[in-house]
Amino acid sequence: MNSLKRKDFRLLMLLGLGQTAQVYLAEAPGLGKVALKLPKKEVRQDPRLSERFAREVTLALSLKHPHLVRGLAGVPLGEEAFLALEYLEGGTLEERLHRGPLPREEAVKALLEVGEALLYLHEKGFLHQDVKPSNVFVDGEHYKLGDLGTLRPLEDPSPEYAGSPHYLAPELFLGGRPSPKSEAYAFGVMAYELLTGRRPFKGETLEDLRQAHLLLPPPPTNLPPRLDRALRRLLAKNPAERLDLRSFLEVLRHPQGPPTEPQEPKKPKRFLFWRK
């Protein structure tokens, strides 16, 4: 996939430690600083887990969108497996939210950029499955969707899913299959959080969250009425009644209503006078 090997990277510091991999700030010739993802030994030795990591490497290097975290280099399988991703010094959107709510204009910008990346993944035949602020990265004045390790082909018939309970669609709590509609719901939860400064559903336990997603309406907002209605439709309990992501993004661009086309000035009527 590229000429770089794992040994070409110099580790600078540990950025994160997950269940399946460690992520380091590293540097390599020609790339500069990167986020280097190294699968754990048990992942490399497990056929199912190693295949999942190999797919993540392949997809990270092949999927290209301005608002997806870029894959730079990687080796998919074996003891030398790794994935080098662009390093974004701004951290995650979740970390940014810990410092306080985003201004409305900035929240809209973040949602539009991440939403376009999500639509791109759907068009390429994949679900992200774990849309949430901790998987959105701040890149200067822009935002990028990351963590492609949970990508799932749209046609995958398995009822298994990845995701976080705070952002999980009601049908997934009931054993339904993930779909673009369930992904739109997760995006809707994040949109509500960014636009209002709070999550729509809370719970101390998994069962509390389950009941909230299944039964409770989102609390009132002070958003423009058209945007508020669209957000509530995006969070519909029934996926058949749920607004699609593309339509929501269009409302987000024009919360007061679609722009009107400039009217052509009317030509003055011409009257003909006939003399007898």
UniProtKB/TrEMBL annotation:
EC number: 2.7.11.1
Record InterPro entries: Kinase-like_dom_sf (IPR011009), Prot_kinase_dom (IPR000719), Protein_kinase_ATP_BS (IPR017441), Ser/Thr_kinase_AS (IPR008271), Ser_Thr_kinase_AGC (IPR050236)
Reactions catalysed, as given in the entry: L-seryl-[protein] + ATP = O-phospho-L-seryl-[protein] + ADP + H(+); L-threonyl-[protein] + ATP = O-phospho-L-threonyl-[protein] + ADP + H(+)
Taxonomic superkingdom: Bacteria
Keywords, comma-separated and alphabetical: ATP-binding, Kinase, Nucleotide-binding, Serine/threonine-protein kinase, Transferase
First-level EC class: transferase
Signal peptide: none
GO molecular function: ATP binding; protein serine/threonine kinase activity
Protein kinase domain ranges (all copies): 9-257
Annotated positions binding ATP: 41
Cited Gene3D superfamilies: Phosphorylase Kinase, domain 1, Transferase(Phosphotransferase) domain 1
A Pfam family the protein falls into: Pkinase
Protein's UniProt keywords contain Transferase: yes
Entries under PROSITE patterns matching the protein: PROTEIN_KINASE_ATP, PROTEIN_KINASE_DOM, PROTEIN_KINASE_ST
PANTHER family, sorted: SERINE/THREONINE-PROTEIN KINASE
Name of the molecule in the record: non-specific serine/threonine protein kinase
Organism per entry: Thermus brockianus
